[in-house]
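Lab channel / #folding
Pinned by the channel admin:
"Please post every new chain as: sequence first, then the structure tokens as a reply. Keep commentary short and put observations after the output so the thread stays searchable."

First post following the new format, from NK:
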Amino acid sequence: MPEAEIKDIPEKFKKKNLAKELLDVIPIELIREFKAFVFDKENGTIHIGAVDHELEALQQYLKNTFSGKVIWYKVKEEDVNFILDNYARDFKEEILSLLKTDIKKKGLISDVIDLTISYALVQKVSDVHIEPTAEEIQVRFRIDGMLYKMFSIPLSLQSELITRFKVLANLKIDESRRPQEGRIERKLFAGILLRVSIVPTLFGEKVVMRVMDDSNKNLELADLGFSEQHREIILKNIDKPYGMILVSGPTGSGKTTTLYSLLQLLKKDGINISTLEDPIEYALKGVNQIQINKRVALDFSTGLRALLRQDPDVIMVGEVRDSETAIMASDAAMTGHLVFSTVHTNNAPSVFVRLMEMGVEDFVIASTINFIIAQRLVRRVCPDCAEKRPLDEAIVKKVLNHRGILSVLEQKYHMNEDALRGATFSTGVGCDTCIQSGYSGRIGIYELLDVNKKIHDMILAKKPAADIKEALKESGYVDMVEDGVSKVMEGVTTFTEVIRTTKDT
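Reply from TO:
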């Protein structure tokens, strides 16, 4: 390959969709991995914008696929993200066109699957559901926590479809009565791991693929949605040599991503970090990660007992599920280890009660917990179709009936019912980018409980969670509802999302 000459990308090529012939050189699936794209092609020469033109995998790929001249240009990650978000290829149309052909005869079932996965990656889905019904196989994508039906596949292709998925995930082809789990990791989808679950249902086997995209593992605290006040609490406590840091929230609320981001703050050569996870969602460089495996009696309590003999400084236990794990994790925190874990409670103050119910002594809880994060994920207003609009009457009524939101509006923003009706808020009206939903992406809303002397004494007195929350409020505590309302006022999300995610807090 000739010596690369690095230039700045011409302005006229910025924020420009890629034509299909340019995607033939570096496909959209590899643009994500290489952070590079071809934006022009002429007379055997290609023009490539790259964040790092010396990336070995990129150089090797071009060496194997292209023999002409390459001219390199400097681009930023935001330029690559624009291509990923807005490129011209229409996967759905390609899939629908393919389904009109004789797929069985032409042996094109692999193409249907590859296009479906590519379509899912571009839409930034977390899960793909391929589920048989009495009439068809429907394909649904979970985008920003919500399921959308994208297209359907003829029921006649069910057998071939399931067989191909089993081959890709290295599962037993002849087993259709029991659930099976596997993984798909292929060069076409470089950097993306697909966790596959297949279960028998009334109308045949259903496939669910969880997209494990490790681009989320190195997010900064601000990117996750932590306010400046919350970041100060985290940074003040994260360097303590021992104690417990707990993250609370329901399944799918982003707890693991938060834990990984906290671990990144601690990672250095002089610290031994070990984790127990079920499953391991992302590989973390410099961290010893252990996969829970109940088939060989390796559960959280057994793994934690073994880890304590491994000279750990920092331990992450994926979840405190039982009394034995809770007591062992607390003991480890008391004896000089920094322990991270997750608990299922509705809010941060309820964590104390939950641990007591698990058999952890109140004095241990009061002495070991450094801080608690409770969180939910809300959808972001789509920036491409956001408009300032007054609230619909139905939303106004929901806000007025939500005591938490109404209290924040009155006390923090001095907004009464009339002011609420007269105000305008950022709303997504729907566009192609957000598949007409009005939302694109998600962000966390949080409450951080810093255990001070007053809370310490209330734990020892076994005060209920409601009393602890009331005491926290008196000292300026920002709960999830208030954090959510702040993000509504900033135009990041909507009242609908805050109401939806904080019903049980």
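NK: The chain has three domains: 6-86, 91-213, 221-501.
TO: also worth noting, Residues 91-213 form a domain with the Beta-Lactamase fold (CATH 3.30.450.90).
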